[in-house]
Amino acid sequence: MALSATIKTPLVSFTQPLGLYIDGQWVRGQSGQTFETINPATEEVVAAVHEATAEDIDLAVNAARRAFRNGWSTTAPTERGKLLLKLAELVESHIEVLSAIESLDNGKPLKLARSDVLSAASCLRYYGGWADKVHGQTIDTDPSFLNYTRHEPIGVCGQIIPWNFPFLMWAWKIGPALATGNTVVLKTAEQTPLSGLYGALLCHEAGVPPGVVNVVVSGFGAVAGAAIAAHMDVDKIAFTGSTLVGRRILEASAKSNLKKVTLELGGKSPNIVFDDADVERAVDWVNNGIYFNHGQCCCAGSRIYVQEGIYDAFIKAFKKRAAANVVGDPFDENTFQGPQISQLQFDRIMGYIKSGREQGATVEVGGQRHGEEGSGFFIQPTIFSNVTPGMKIMQEEIFGPVCAVQRFSTEEEVVRMGNDSIYGLAAGIHTTNVSRAIRVANALHAGTVWINNYNSLSPQVPFGGFKQSGIGRELGEYALSNYTQVKAVRMLLD
Ligand code: ADP
What we know:
Blueprint: E1 4-8, E2 13-17, E3 20-22, E4 25-27, E5 34-39, E6 44-50, H1 54-69, H2 77-93, H3 95-106, H4 110-130, E7 138-139, E8 145-153, E9 156-160, H5 166-179, E10 183-187, H6 194-206, E11 213-217, H7 221-230, E12 236-240, H8 243-255, E13 260-264, E14 270-273, H9 279-291, E15 303-307, H10 311-324, H11 343-358, E16 362-365, E17 382-385, H12 392-395, E18 402-408, H13 411-418, E19 423-424, E20 426-430, H14 434-443, E21 448-451, E22 466-467, E23 470-471, H15 478-482, E24 484-492
Parallel strand pairs: 9-10, 9-12, 10-11, 12-13, 14-15, 14-20, 15-18, 17-18, 20-21
Antiparallel strand pairs: 1-2, 3-4, 5-6, 7-8, 8-24, 13-23, 16-17, 19-22
Family: Belongs to the aldehyde dehydrogenase family.
Protein name: aldehyde dehydrogenase (NAD(+))
InterPro entries: Ald_DH/histidinol_DH, Ald_DH_C, Ald_DH_CS_CYS, Ald_DH_CS_GLU, Ald_DH_N, Aldehyde_DH_dom
């Protein structure tokens, strides 16, 4: 099968790489197998890509090891930074193609796809800026010693990304790894292999040396992903995905070479609206908090707590707002919500809606498939009320356009409710009382707390989870420590 194909979209036509990008070359998988990727808005096949298996992972890891040893780890940091800046420019100049790929392969509305691509470019540029600003300390112990630390790259990094933000996660992973002198074997998600492969094309064009970035590997999680996690010559793994698989990654590390692990996992984030909030503004942010990216966000604000004085007004306005979200064709510039990623996800989400009904919650809005069966995995924006904390829809991550609204009376009560979760990725607070905002932000167990907004991310600001939402932080200066190890040098002076 071919290593590339011409793909036509309503926006642009482009040449899409379909192979594996290993050691600076486009190759077929060793098994000779391919698999199809589906357009979730139409359920039609977009393309077939070459599948990576454990043998390909070996080749990619060997290439990454050679590239690490033979120069990348000792390339002048400024040069590494320049390459990242060049890559950021290339990403920006290919915004229409990359956005079209995301809309086609993932079902993201164009507006959102474009914003993802720009955020990816910002992330690469941000870490390009960091490349020559990573340094250790000199430490005074006594006059007979010179002590200093070096922040050295870790080595070969396995990076496994999910399907909900395919290109953005690609950039979040590659940026800090390359800036700090590591080499990469990155596996895209099997549902969305295309933008990561296109990104590899841009790495090539930017002049990233062979073997430094092996993007890789459109393989399945249980095959290619598991092979990366268990590999004896992968020094670190950065994973974004479900908590279930996160556990497997940690286990694989423990059973193999104790590779360092960072995990960005699931969530069930509370979004809290106090009586003194501006209802319309709060509704906008709450709507964005759950329905942005079709609810397929690990940080989605899916548990919405509204104080009793404002509850009725809030529900009324929120129902109206949710029902007005435009669901449909990702290539239509007016679309806000596209399809869910796959039949599997569609079925899971509909299963949760059924469970909410069965456990006695009330569907205020939505609750059904949007459109005809067989023409895309669309689900109506759905709001549940009359929920209790023990319900499945209040405890488990749904990863779809479904939220539950619960009434509360006091600040103390809502902090307790908000923290009643195995997860701790994010939280939102809507209030005009500054002291309350800060008090509640301090009390919530979450890696990110948004006050009077939701889902806003910036490459400068760290992101990651408390509790079972993860280990380590991405973005910001904090991510650099996940990609470096500290060496202490003690020199005895004569
Ligand atoms: P989801 O359930 O939303 O698809 P997953 O956690 O299964 O999320 O997938 C996230 C990423 O993890 C994907 O790239 C997938 O291929 C990969 N993956 C899935 N299973 C494994 C596994 N056992 N080992 C390593 N990676 C895996």
